[in-house]
Design a protein that fits this description.
Structural class: mainly alpha
Helix content: 55-70%
Largest sheet: none
CATH architecture of the largest domain: Orthogonal Bundle
Strand content: under 5%
Length: about 290
């Protein structure tokens, strides 16, 4: 219940999209992806109309996260090097982070939230590479945005969000379980609905929607399972730094579908550490970075 009225994730999202609507450039790029005659130059020309977005995209593609030897100076060159699919994901990521940075949030520690999100994105991409997933970079975007529903809930439902935090601490349950108990839905559902509202690819919607419960998906996919594992590995990494907090179990279906095991985790953790800080610097607005 919210304000005495039953509220669904769809209704919650419809009430927030006006506040965090994606920039026109992001919407246009998404539309152009479905046009078979569009090329790198066309998309580069559209993106270049937004100087702030252009600067952030070039910073990302020139970071250690990609590791290109030659510096990339133009968006059209970035499209050529990393591909249209990947660029659409980066445009979405940069736009979503920027859009939410303009909203007040008195419930979440946004520095910790975005550190968790970026680290999860890095781990998801590394897991995808290990699993030989095609276009593994798109898993970075799915990992980065997996908890975006929390931003919607904590912005629009402040009182209930505080109750969720207290319940999770008192009952020693996971955050999404506390959300289900108090709200009747959780942040994964809200995040999935937001991406659907933004007309994002179904694979991205599903990876966010089912990242806590991959077996609940009508057709569990390797993308869902990778984000599920990446999220839990991120919690494990955080648990090593901050004592306390529950670490959720990894669903058996995720191990079965990916072929991964816990024996693979140390290698992924070691690799993630080398690119996390630069990915964080490239993705996040200055206001979200720790001093």
């Amino acid at each position: 219940m919210y304000g005495g009225i039953d509220l669904t994730p769809q209704e919650l999202v419809s009430g927030v999209v006006r506040l965090v609507s994606l920039p026109e450039v992001c919407i246009r790029v998404n539309e152009m992806m479905d046009d078979p005659v569009v090329n790198a130059t066309d998309i580069g020309r559209v993106i270049s109309q937004d100087t702030s977005l252009t600067a952030r995209l070039l910073k990302i593609v020139n970071s250690a996260f990609y590791g290109f030897q030659a510096r990339i100076e133009t968006v059209s060159r970035a499209v050529t090097v990393i591909g249209l699919r990947e660029l659409r994901g980066l445009v979405l990521a940069a736009s979503a982070v920027e859009s939410f940075s303009k909203l007040p949030n008195d419930v979440l520690n946004l520095v910790n939230f975005w550190r968790h999100s970026v680290y999860c994105g890095v781990v998801a991409q590394l897991l995808a590479q290990k699993c030989n997933v095609l276009h593994s970079e798109r898993l970075f975007i799915a990992g980065l945005l997996h908890d975006i529903g929390k931003l919607v809930i904590t912005n629009k439902m402040v009182k209930e969000s505080r109750e969720v935090i207290l319940r999770a601490e008192k009952k020693k349950v996971l955050d999404f379980e506390a959300e289900q108990a108090i709200l009747g839905f959780d942040h994964a559902e809200v995040g999935g609905e937001l991406l659907k509202e933004w007309n994002m690819p179904e694979s991205l919607y599903n990876a966010v929607r089912y990242h806590h419960r991959p077996a609940a998906a009508m057709e569990p996919t390797i993308e869902i399972c990778i984000v599920h594992i990446a999220n839990i590995m991120t919690i494990m990494a955080e648990h090593g730094v901050n004592e306390g907090g529950a670490i959720p179990p990894i669903d058996k279906i995720a191990f079965d579908m990916t072929g991964l095991s816990e024996a693979d985790f140390d290698q992924i953790f070691a690799r993630a550490g080398t690119v996390f800080s630069e990915a964080l610097d490239a993705i996040l607005p200055r206001a979200y970075k720790p001093l």
